[in-house]
Structures are given as structure tokens and as C-alpha cells.
Specification:
The protein is mainly α. Helix content is 62%, strand content 4%. The protein has a four-stranded mixed β-sheet with strand order 1-2-3-4. Strand 1 and strand 2 form a beta hairpin. Helix 5 runs antiparallel to helix 6, helix 8 packs parallel to helix 10 and helix 9 packs antiparallel against helix 10. The protein is globular, with a radius of gyration of 23 Å.
Length: 446
């Protein structure tokens, strides 16, 4: 299908379904944007659409993935080569962290229709999400080589290739991709392009940073750090992070990502001077670049875990409290996990999970650490009490739940955190939010 003139009514319907069956089929990176096509804009010649598509779409919107999967299985049993269903189904697997199934369906879609735009776009994004840069680059290049692609999809490809080139220190290629993006992209894509160009300018100036390549991570030590740390100490620093990554990958049962860069500074102030960040450790993860500080309350192993945890749970995490807690659990080096929370409870200053989510919108460092202390105690307790499998079900369910219109606060982008957490915990742990929080507080009081 190389030109618009070749479309037929059924082909139009197939293309439409790819976009419309799942409203959240959007580019996975938070800087990206993508257009959508409403399936109601198209009709088959007889004016009818398979009602099962709409039923699956409704289940998807409500976060009832089990029922949506059941409907898609029925359709694929009858039409195993239904590319739009394979793409939507694969994307839904991605959203809940079922990566093997997601890749299998997206690869099959690409095999059945080598020129299908969304199949290649989602597959390239998923490979990058996993840290498989070579496969991602190969798929993005095939995407951009197609005879016809929409501009927003082309820009998505430029974002992906630009980030990959940046991670590989291919400054020339990265600059070419980001410059095109900054000039041609919409507001969001242009912003990403400009951000990429700024990062290239900064990173090229860091040539004096001392590089130590580990098996799982490549650390770049700022000159101030390199002066105070002997080579053996830097090697040991990287080895600790390597071990933490290998341990986490084993616990979670996921593919080991390609090594990614971590820039190491003396403290948060120096990191801010070099990067304009507020702190070394942060919530951002989409670029596969980590930052840490020697004199930070957050150990580097924890910071490295953020890249893995933010991806393990699905397409996009939404609760930093839980993410930080799980990072602490996997890193295993955050000191006394429960001590700070016990102290806060004894002093009557222990927040609820909902309060923590709202506090994280603030920029005050004390409030951020307050939520960090909350998560690094509550999450390990939940895992010890209910088990990792049930915790995983709860967390992945939460990512689906908060996207459901049922938990959106009317006329705002806000989320009813209490109801969303309670629904996810009931589904995954078998206990609602009140029961879980009361159990955790009882534990802290002992």
C-alpha cells in the first residue's frame, strides 16, 4: 500500500481500526505526540463495523483488559492475519509489561504487512523502551524508508533515532535528527528537538569526564569527582551498580537492557550547574540517561533502578511513590527502609498514600524526601506481606486503572488517587487501600 490512491474501503477500515480501537495508542515517549483517527469517520460499504471491535474498545477504555483480550482472541481465531487487532493487542500487552507477547504480536503484524506504519512505529518504540537500541534503530530506519508516512510518525522516528545516536555519542547523526525535528515538528516535537540539541551541546563539553565502562552501565565522572576518587574506587562504584542491575533483571525476569550512561557529580548543586536539573536523581527516564551525585541521599544503585522499574511495570508509570519504593526494594542499599516512616508515625507526621501523591507536585525537597521515605517502607512491606507476584499484578493494574475515565476528576486532568489505588489493590492484593494502609501502619507501630 504505497499511495493513498490504492486504498479501498476495507483497507481504510483496517487503517482506521489501528488508531481507533485504543485511544491510548499514542507514542510512548512523554515528549512525543501523535494524531488519531476516529473510527466513526469511516464505514464499510454496507455501513457496518464488526461489533466486537467496538466492544473490545469499550473494555480497553474501562481498563478491563481481560475482557478485551478475550474478544481479540475470538477475532484472531477467525482471522489470524488481522493486522489492526494484532497491533492493538500487542500495544495492550505492552501497557501491562507483557513484553514477549507484545513483541510477538507486533512483529507478526510487521511480517504480515511490511508497510504498516503503526506496526513499525510501535515496535521501534517498544524496542527502545526495553533498551534494545540496535533493534530499535533498525526498525525506525525501515519506518522512515516507507513510501508514505504521516508527518507526526516521521517526527516520532526522528525522535527515536536522535535519542539512539545521542546514547551512542554519534553527535553528528543526533544533531541532524534533532535539528530537523526542531524545525519541522509540532510544538511538542519541536520542543523535544530543541532539548536534544541542548543536550548534545552540553554533553560534548563533558569530554573531560572520566569514563568507566561496566557490563550494564557506563559511568562518566565529573572532573571534581575524578580528582577525589581513585581509579579503583570508580571501578568499584560502577561494579556496585552493575551488580544491582543484574540482580534486578533476575528478580523481575526481564531482558537485560543495553548499557546506558550515568553521569556522576559531586552533589546536586554541581549537577544543576552542568545540566540545569534541580537534583541528580529525578523522575525522568525516557532518554535512557541517569544522573547521580556522590553526596546525595539517593544511592546510585537506586537511581539506576529507576530506569528499569519505570519500564518493567508497563508503558508508563504513574505513581512516583510506588516507583521510588520499589527502586529501594530492588537496590537493597537504601539503609533502614522502615526507620524514617516509623519516626514520622511516632511524631504524627505520616502521610497517606494519596497525600504523598499530591505532595509530589510540589518542588520542596523535604516533601519529596517525605514521600520517598513513605514509598521505601510501604512497598517492601507490601511485597513481604502479599508477595511479589501480587504486588506486580496490583501495580500493573494501577497503570491501567488510572487511565480509565472512571477515576478522572471531572473537568480536570487530575486523578482520584484514593479510588484508583483502592481498585488496583483490591484487584491485585485482595485488599483495598484502607486495609493495606492500616496493616502497614500497624507494622510500623510494632
Amino acid at each position: 500500500m504505497s499511495s493513498l490512491a490504492e486504498f479501498r474501503p476495507l483497507a481504510l477500515l483496517a487503517l482506521m481500526l489501528t488508531f481507533a480501537l485504543a485511544p491510548s495508542l499514542v507514542a510512548q515517549d512523554e515528549e512525543e505526540s501523535s494524531g488519531g483517527i476516529d473510527w466513526r469517520d469511516y464505514e464499510e460499504e454496507d455501513g457496518n463495523v464488526d461489533p466486537r471491535y467496538q466492544r473490545a474498545r469499550d473494555y480497553h477504555e474501562l481498563g478491563d483488559f481481560e475482557e478485551a483480550f478475550r474478544v481479540y482472541d475470538q477475532i484472531l481465531a477467525e482471522r489470524p492475519a488481522d493486522v489492526p487487532v494484532l497491533i492493538t493487542y500487542g500495544h495492550m500487552h505492552w501497557k501491562i509489561g507483557e513484553y514477549d507477547k507484545a513483541i510477538a504480536k507486533l512483529e507478526k503484524a510487521c511480517e504480515l504487512d511490511p508497510k504498516h506504519i503503526k506496526a513499525k512505529q510501535f515496535l521501534a518504540q517498544l524496542y527502545f523502551h526495553q533498551g534494545r537500541r540496535a533493534k530499535s534503530k533498525e526498525t525506525y530506519e525501515k519506518l522512515l524508508a516507507l513510501d508514505w508516512i504521516r508527518e507526526d510518525v516521521r517526527h516520532s522516528g526522528l525522535i527515536g533515532l536522535g535519542k539512539i545516536a545521542l546514547l551512542e555519542n554519534d553527535w553528528f547523526a543526533a544533531r541532524r535528527h534533532f535539528r530537523l525535528l526542531s524545525k519541522e515538528g509540532n510544538r511538542a516535537d519541536s520542543k523535544t528537538g530543541k532539548k536534544g540539541l541542548e543536550m548534545i551541546t552540553r554533553m560534548m563539553k563533558w569530554g573531560s569526564f572520566a569514563k568507566v565502562e561496566g557490563k550494564r552501565i557506563h559511568c562518566y565522572f565529573a572532573p571534581s569527582v575524578a580528582k577525589t576518587m581513585e581509579p579503583k574506587e570508580r571501578d568499584a562504584y560502577v561494579a556496585r551498580i552493575d551488580s544491582a542491575i543484574e540482580r534486578a533483571v533476575g528478580v523481575l525476569g526481564i531482558a537485560t537492557p543495553d548499557p546506558w550512561p550515568m553521569y556522576v557529580f559531586e552533589d546536586d548543586t554541581e549537577c544543576g550547574f552542568y545540566t540545569q536539573r534541580k537534583a541528580a536523581h529525578g523522575w525522568d527516564y525516557s532518554w535512557w540517561i541517569s544522573y547521580s551525585a556522590i553526596h546525595s541521599k539517593i544511592p546510585p544503585e537506586h537511581t539506576a533502578m529507576a530506569q528499569i522499574v519505570n519500564r518493567w511495570c508497563g508503558s508508563r508509570p504513574l505513581s512516583r511513590v510506588i516507583v521510588e519504593g520499589f527502586c529501594a526494594y530492588l537496590a537493597g542499599v537504601d539503609g533502614d527502609l522502615h526507620g524514617p516512616a516509623k519516626t514520622r508515625k511516632k511524631e504524627g507526621r505520616l502521610s497517606t498514600l494519596r497525600e504523598c501523591q499530591l505532595l509530589l507536585r510540589q518542588t520542596d525537597e523535604d516533601e519529596t524526601l517525605r514521600c520517598y521515605d513513605h514509598g521505601k517502607s510501604m512497598v517492601p512491606w507490601m511485597i513481604d506481606t502479599y508477595g511479589l507476584d501480587k504486588f506486580a499484578t496490583m501495580w500493573k493494574r494501577f497503570n491501567i486503572t488510572v487511565n480509565s475515565p472512571k477515576y478522572k476528576i471531572a473537568n480536570t486532568k487530575g486523578i482520584d488517587w484514593e479510588a484508583a489505588f483502592s481498585a488496583a489493590m483490591t484487584k491485585g492484593l485482595g485488599a483495598d487501600l484502607t486495609t493495606v494502609e492500616n496493616g502497614w501502619r500497624t507494622f510500623l507501630a510494632q
